[in-house]
Structure formats: structure tokens, C-alpha cells
Amino acid sequence: MGFVSGALVPVNAFIGALFLLSTILLMAFRQVEGYMRYFIWQSVLLVLSTADLAVIRGSPNLFIVAVITLAAKVIMIPLLLRRVLHDELRTRREVELVINTQASLLVALLLSVMAYILVIPVLPFAPSGAAVNLPVGLDVLLIGMYTLAIRREAVPQMLALMAIDNGVFYAGVSITDSPAIIELAAGLEGVMVVVVVTILARTIAQHIGSTAVGHMATLKEGESR
Amino acid sequence: MILVALPVTALVAAAVAALRPWTNLPRMATAVAGVLEFLITLDVAIRVGQGATLQVPAAGIGVDGLAAVLLLLQGFVGMTASLYSWGYIRQLTEANRDRERWYHVNLNLFLASLFVVPLLLVPALAWVAVELTTVLSIFLVALENHHAALEAAWKYAVITIMGATAAALGIFLLLWGLSMRAPAAPQTWSAIIAAGPHMPAPLVRLAFVLIVIGFGTKVGFVPLHTWLPDAHSQAPTPVCALLSGVEVSTALYMILRLWPVFTTSPGFPAATWAIVIGLVSVGTAAFLLVQVHDYKRLFAFSTVEHMGILLAALGFGPLGAYAAIYQLLTHGLTKSLAFYTSGGVLIRTGTRDISEIRGLMQFAPWEGWSLLLAGLAIAGAPPFAVFLSEFSVVRSAYAVHDYWAIGLLLGFLLIAFLGILWQLTKMLFGTPHSDRRARSPRSLPLTVVLSAVPVVLLGVYLPAPLHHLFQMAAMNLRR
After folding, report:
1. What residues have CB less than 8 Å from A93, skipping those under 6 apart?
2. Which residue does chain B place closest to A159, by CA atoms?
């Protein structure tokens, strides 16, 4: 490992800290516009970490992944969302939360500890960089799931879904740099999922008047309709 | 190259359906492609059963016993769903030709994505294909475009995509384990299975959690099943049949493929976990069956129950693996039949509410009888196919002396059986509230009869070639 690569390992750790921070802000923030901003931050950090690992490993595959992520998550998806959901972002600023921010932060802390405990037994086998990426990626996966559960609106739920995706890739790029085809396909997949889900969210908005999916409670057991 | 022909047929049908020369073309394309696809899958299954190696490793595609069983199920239910759509969707879309055409395009694309999953030898690509099946079926679920259908589609999309994403991390972990052992090996199912016993045990354990939770969300294991009854009841009937009969089995196929990795990892009690998760699903679904108010949800919960039985069977040794494959096929065939008959009742009565339907046998004897027989078949009564497969599950549990599991399983099966029949008898007998006489399209009873054929045949005997194919598939679940 050369001098440059040696210096890049702590850089990756720093990026990891910011990546986790952006996820927690995404969870705690109360404005749709803010979610969007922190999602873009998070995606930029994912790109940086991937590029950093690409240099450390000398892996061209990871560079391709970084470029794909940049194009899809940092540029295309935010543009698409802004375009299709322009009014949505403007008008629906305050978002109703199921659990207040303080309690959520506590949950995020517990999830972080849990993610670390789950990953500890695997770490002895991990390549350089993965010691940060693996626990942080799993943590972002868990916090993303929690965020998805407490959100009550379509756009925030969609962004939480993609934050989970970012977490998985953040962990993934640190442990595999083999055929880029996986990441390639998955990157394309991400874009498509968003396209479809966006259109669906739009349809819901047109039909019900708002995208507050939390108020959808028609389908359940125990009462006859 | 017969393997490639399968998704290509569906894609061509989608393309033809997208044209608009005359109004019957879309549904004709779907029907013809459905029959062709079934014939192809039948041919593939027969050839695999005779020991032909249908593998093209260079192209990353191939079919073995396990994949052939899934393909056969997909082919048959795909065909019946295509034929059922003929009249049903015309009636549902109320002669809105554009929506009908759009449905046929989407249905064929969905079928193409389903066929691709068992063909792929590379897990990462198979994962992408499973994601595609979700994406392409969202609009099918939301076809009716009213509040409840959209709600169901949204839940379905968000929850299952979240699950699949978690499973992706599990696949990443296993690929990492593979690269530790054999850095240059092709990243196929078989390479991962071969490297399985040499991977670090904590890594396999973490991957197991992520993969079972991830794909389990799409299969509908309790407590990740919450979206399933909604999506599987709100979708139009042929789509319900495909989702409940084939789509969940396709998601489960991903877990089955990786099963040998988990069982061969030293010190990891994968079998015990399968039994526990399976029985929790069977038990919860059995009790939930009793209190539903919607007969399509009744069958949806029955899917959760059957997936639980299937997973539990994986824990019962080599005989259990055979029983699981058996159950996979019989459940898919029978569940699609059950949904087809319930679609007939829906057209006839115009309601999904059990309490609003009385005396079906009197004012609609055909719909009543077919619903009763399909209900008996899915509940596991002899002489239908599910009875034999459930019997083989119980026998495999007996072979490994797991008496606790047998006791619980039989208890839950009994509750589910009584639950289904109790709900159905409420609808079938008594004095009719109304005698609405909506005519159902003629293609409907024909499809019901066609899809009942294997359910009855497999209930009396299991043809030797099929038995042989099951054995080959069961071998794929072991090392």
C-alpha cells in the first residue's frame, strides 16, 4: 500500500462519519425540501467513498460504480423528483411525524450500537475500508427502515427507501469489487424503481388529493366494510 | 436456445399487444403467448427430467431440477392467467380499450420478468430480475385505480422493495465470502454453494438474516406479511392468481437456491430457524383466516399459511426438501384455481364482502360449486393435490422425529381447514340476499376447468417423471 492509499483510509473513515450524520439528519428533519437536500448529501458521500475505495484498491470497477451512482442518485433522481413533484415540495413543508425527533435520535443511537454488534464478528475478515463501511452501511439500512416506518407521506417514504439503497451500496462497495455488472444493473434498477414509484405517487396525489399515505387505512382486518 | 425463447415470447406478446390495429389483438397475443410459454416450460421440464443439461454458462443462463419445477409452475399459471384475462379484463375495464391494451402489455412484461428469474445462474442478476417482477406488477395491482387498489399498490411497492434491498446486502456478503475462498471463480449459485462451508460462519449468519428477512418480505413470512393480503386481494383476479401462485414462489426460489449455503455452514442451525419461522407463519395465518371479511383476503392469508408450511418443510431433512418442492408446485396450482373461482363469484355478486353473500349454491350453482371445491382443495382435503403434498410434509417431519413440529403443524392445519370452510359455508348456504344476475364471460368457466385438471390429477397420483423431477430439485436443496 503506497503513501497515497495509506492516507486515503482515514479519509474514508471521515466520509463514513459524514455519511451516517447525513442519514440521521434525513431521519430527524421535518421539511420535505430538507429531506431532499440530505438525500443528495448522502448520495454525494456514497460517491466519494466509492471513489476513495477505488483508488485504495486500484479497482476500475468501483470507479464505474461511483460514476453510475453520481449520475443516478446525485443528478437524475433529484432532478426527476423536483420536476414531477415541484408543487409537492413547495406546498407540503411541515411533515407530520409519528414519533418526535428526540425519541427518534435515541432509536438511531440504539440502532447504531446494534449494527456494530452485528458486524463485529465479521470484521476480522474485512478488507481495508470495510471496517468503517460495513457497520455504517448496515446502520444506515436499519435507520432507513425506521425512517420509512415513521414517515407518513409518499415523498419522504420514497427518499427513505433510497437512503436504504444508499446504505446497502455503501457497505457493498467495500466488500466486493468484482464484476461491475452487479452494481451497473443495480444502479439502473434504482433509477427505474424511482421512475415508477414517482409516477405512482403522482397518481395517488391526483386521486386522493394528497400524498399522505399514512391516512390510508382502509385495508385491514377486524371490521366489516 | 429454447431457454431464451421463453422470455422472448412474452416480450413479443407485449410488443404485439402495444400495437393497435384491432381491438382483439392484445388479448389474442396474451392468450397465444400464454399457451406457447406453457408448452416451452413443459418441454424444458421434460428434458431436464430426462437428464439433459440445459446450461449455457458462458451466457450465464441454465436450468436444473429446482429451476425446472418453478418454470413449470410459472408456465402453467401464466397460461391460465392469460386465458382468464380474455373475458375478465374486458368486463373489468368496461370496454375502455386503452386500459385493456395497457393491461395486456404490462401482464406480458411481468410474465417475462418472472420467467427470467429461474433461468439466471448469477445471483446478482437474479436479484435484479426479482426487483423487476415487483416493479412490473405494481401497475397491475393498481389497475382498478380506486382508493383501495392504489393503497395496496403503494404498500406493496414500498415494503417489498425495502425487503429486496436488504437482501441485496446479504448477496453482497455471500459474494464477499466467495471472493475470499476463490477470487477468480464465476459468481454463480453453484460457486457460492461450493464455497459455502469454507466461508466464515459469522458472515454466513449475517447473510442468512438479511436474505431471509429480505426475500421473506416478498414471500410474506409473518411478521413481514402485512402488505400481502392487500395486494393479493385488490389486484384484478388473474393478477391475484399470478401473485399468490407464482410471484411469492419466485421470491422463495431465491431463498431455496441459497439454502445449501446456510445448512452446510458449520454450527449454524438453519433447519431449526426454518421450522420456527415457518410454524409462526402457519399459526398466525391460521388464526387470521378465521376473522377475515373478504373472501379474496381469505385466500391471500392462505398463501401466507402455505409459504410457512413450505419453509418449515425445509427443516425436516432430505424428505422435507422433497416435500417442500412438492408443496411449491401444488400450492401454486391450487391457489390460482381458488382465485379464479373467487373471480367468478365477484363478477356474479359484485362484492368481496363475505357477509353480503348468502345462498350462493341456490342462485349461482356453478360459481358456488367451483368455489366450494377449490376451497376444499386449498384447505388440504383429499382427493386434491395439496392433501398429498401436506401429507408428505408431515411424513418428513415424522422421519426426523420432530414430534413437536408435527403436533403444532397438524393443529394449525386443522384450524386453517376449519377456518376456510366455515367462511365459505357462510357464503354458500342460507337464503340469498339478492339474486343479481351479472353474466360472467364464457372464457371464465373454461379456464377454471383447465386449471382444475392438474389439481385433481395430482390429487390421485404423481406421474413418475414428475416424481423424478422433484427428486432432482430436492437434490439442489442439499449438497
Report:
1. A31, A32, A33
2. B158
Q: What is the reported pLDDT for A125?
A: 84
Query: What is the pLDDT at residue B241?
Result: 95
- B358 domain-assigned: yes
Instruction: Give the pLDDT confidence score for residue A223 in this predicted structure.
Output: 43
Report the alpha-carbon distance of residue B166 to residue B467 in Å, rounded: 35
For chain A, percent of residues with pLDDT exceeding 90: 22
Which of A145, A146, A162, A182 has the highest number of chain B CBs within 10 A, making it the mutation to test binding with B?
A182
Q: Which residues share a beta bridge with B54?
A: B63
Task: Kindly determine whether residue B165 and residue A175, on different chains, have CB atoms separated by under 8 Å.
Answer: no
Give the nearest partner residue to B172 out of A148, A171, A201, using CB atoms: A171
| Ranges A196-210, B81-95, B399-413: which has the least confidence | A196-210
Chain centroid offset of residue A213 CA: 20
Task: Tell me the count of A-B CB pairs closer than 8 A.
Answer: 136
- Distance CA(A155)–CA(A164), nearest Å, equals 14
Q: B211 has which bridge partners?
A: none
User: How would residue A225 be classed by pLDDT, with cut points 50, 70 and 90?
Assistant: very low
B215-226 mean pLDDT? 92
CB neighbour list of residue B278: distance below 8 Å, 6 or more residues apart: B308, B309, B310, B311, B312, B313, B314, B315
In a mutational test of the A interface, the residue from B158, B205, B356, B426 whose CB has the highest number of chain A CBs within 10 Å is B158
Rounded to 5 degrees, φ, ψ at B73 are -60, -45
Quote the domain boundaries for residue B379: 269-479
The residue ranges of every structural domain in chain A are 3-210
List Cα–Cα distances, A80 to A77, A93, B222, B303, B427, in angstroms: 5, 19, 35, 37, 49
Q: Do A219 and B230 touch (CB under 8 A)?
A: yes
Q: Using an 8 Å CB-CB cutoff, list chain B residues near A198.
A: none
Which cell is B351 given?
362484492
Q: Which of A178, A200, A218 sits opposite B179 (nearest CB)?
A: A178
Q: Cα(A116)–Cα(A121) distance, rounded to whole angstroms?
A: 9
Q: How confident is the model at residue A207, as a pLDDT?
A: 63
Q: Looking at the domain assignment, is residue B107 inside a domain?
A: no
Q: Is A119 on the interface with B (CB under 8 A)?
A: yes
> Where is average pLDDT lowest: A197-206, B131-140, B345-354, B362-371?
A197-206
Provide the number of structural domains found in chain B. 1
Give the pLDDT score at A91: 62
The DSSP string of A84-126 is HTHHHHHH--B---SS-HHHHHHHHHHHHHHHHHHHGGGGGGP
Q: Above 90 in pLDDT, residue B253?
A: yes
